[in-house]
Amino acid sequence: MRKKRTDNKLLRSRRRRVIKIALLTLWAAAFAFLFLMPTVLTITNSFMSASEITANYGVIFETTKSGGKAYISERVNLKFIPDKVTFKQYITVLLKSPEYLLKFWNSVILVVPIVIFQVLIALSAAYSFSRFRGKGKEVIFFAYIVLMLMPYQVTLVPNYLVAEKLGLLGSRWAVILPGVFSPFSVFILTKCMRRIPEDMIEAARLDGASEWHIFTRICLPMCRGAIYSVVILVFIDYWNMVEQALIMLPDTDMQPLSIFLSKINAGEIGLAFAVATIYMVPTILLFLHGEEHLVEGITYSGGLKG
Amino acid sequence: MTRKQPGPEQLRRRKDRLNSLIYLSPSLIGVMVFFLVPFMVVIYYSVIDNPVNKDFVLIDNFIKVIKNSAFKQAAANTAKFSLVAVPGAVVLALLLAMLLENKIPGKSRFRTFFLSPMMVPVASVVLIWQVIFHYNGALNGLLSVFGVDPIDWMKTDYSQIMIVILFWWKNLGYNMILFMAALANIPKTLVEAASVDGASSFSRFWHIKIRYLSPTILFVTILSLINSFKVFREVYLLTGDYPYETLYMLQHFMNNKFSSFDYQMLSAAAIIMAVVIVAIIGALFYAENRFGKDVEQ
Fold first, then answer.
1. Do residues A35 and A156 both lie within one domain?
2. I need a labelling partner for B107 at 20 to 30 A (CA). Which of A41, A116, B75, B245 fits?
3. Are residues A7 and A140 in the same domain?
């Protein structure tokens, strides 16, 4: 008798827990839908034919084509799945209109050097910040943190003045060089290297290992995750660049695809989704390939103290 | 043993100092050349009347900036935006992290989904934002089903709401990861003990968890604040150089001054912003320190 009652109670609390989990899952699914929707829509819409895009979104982008024969729906027709899947937009972008590829290339030659050199220089600086500590060092590190916290509205002014003085304005170096020395990755990599146990380095030292050896054989392998995540974070940040390019590169021929995409004219709206999708490919690949490292790196960045 | 002969300890220290300098110098030289030294020039520019005359005017430029109506507008818009977007980004991200703390199926999938907007270039989704928020767009279409009159998201005061949503969409995932790591670090025994003592889940959260989370809350707040200054990207890519007035951000102001080569204004504005940001972050640190002390008592 008594046992049965407790059984009942257990059953009820269990049922309640199942309902709770189901409700929470529903919530999570709703959020997931909102978070994924814009990305998924961009990708699926890139497989729509130009006429379908015009029909669905013509009201917005006002494709005033001569003749105006194209069918345009009065309301926007947000569709996940195209009526007819076509690769035509991609073929046009990749083979027939070099201007998009050129802008894509503009993005690449701005971002890749920044990522490579920022991380290399930051690794060396992080080693110095983590291995040799002293009062002066702490002051410099603090200055790096303050600098890291400054928005572009502040840092672009000094960057601009230097670029002007060195005659770099309008050249890619005006964007690349400040990017290379940006202190963001120094901060995260230092945090990672400071977690390496002192004993380990001391032991290597007693064995007669040189600084270079300790740096390359102990610190770098132990921070592989953090390095990978810094590469991803820096890459995304600069792949998204708008402010620097607007100010340092007035010549639109040199501007990255990120700016050009927003200026695509109404007549090419059919292509725009395909270009937008191509532009996502590098960051999405990096993300899918290194999500675990990325999460680890984000966790390192947490906390400015210590 | 003569005094001039350095001992092995001293030799080692000297060598350390040299090595330390060697490893730091590439970065330090770059930071000096591209940030610190020119920032001194920025300070200098902010207190002279113009680069030709070089008359010392102290605070005239600052007053000019503060009285400038475009600057006022931009500062007010940015402040209004950050005041809504930043606290919201902290609270919502914490809620998402707590949601994923439960044993729901496909947890790591959900984490990937919530984090994914961070990986999508702003420029790539701008098209979809236009489709959604346009006057004839999808959102108004959806609202009309519920009998809500169409809203002009781009050209009315609602535009601030729109960019807050875009900001959250992009930044919540990153903040959520930080909160997930912090939640995982709260000692389980403490929470369990409280729950045995009959503490409700709300009081467990309010009296225990939030104390442990306070350094992370501080960090996420600062991070979101800094990211909130980057919302210019969304605004610019959506609406171009001359947006609706509530979307006129500080970066628009700076861009205008760059194109008119007004170095005095630029320098003074940059310094004002730097000072305000340092003051806000300092205040946040102070608040967290006081709050964090409660935990130890």
1. no
2. A41
3. no
What is the span of the domain harbouring residue A179?
A: 92-301
Give the pair of three-digit tokens for residue B269.
């504005």
Give the CATH number of the domain where residue A293 resides. 1.10.3720.10
Cβ of A39 within 8 Å of Cβ of B125? The answer is yes
- Nearest CB to A302: which of B113, B178, B266? B178
Residue A122 lies in a domain: yes
Residue B247: which H helix or E strand, with range?
none
Q: Are A278 and A194 part of one and the same domain?
A: yes
Residue A306 covered by a domain: no
ipTM of the shown complex: 0.87
Residue A131 sits in the same domain as residue A182: yes
Predicted confidence (pLDDT) per residue in B215-274, tens digit: 899 989 999 999 999 899 999 988 888 888 889 999 999 988 888 888 899 999 999 999
Residue in B30, B102, B137 nearest the CB of A76: B137
∠ Cα B33 A244 A225 (to 5°): 80
Residue A158: alpha-carbon gap to chain centroid: 25
Please tell me if residue A262 touches chain B, with a CB cutoff of 8 Å.
Answer: yes
How far does A164 lie from chain B, in Å, by closest CA?
A: 11
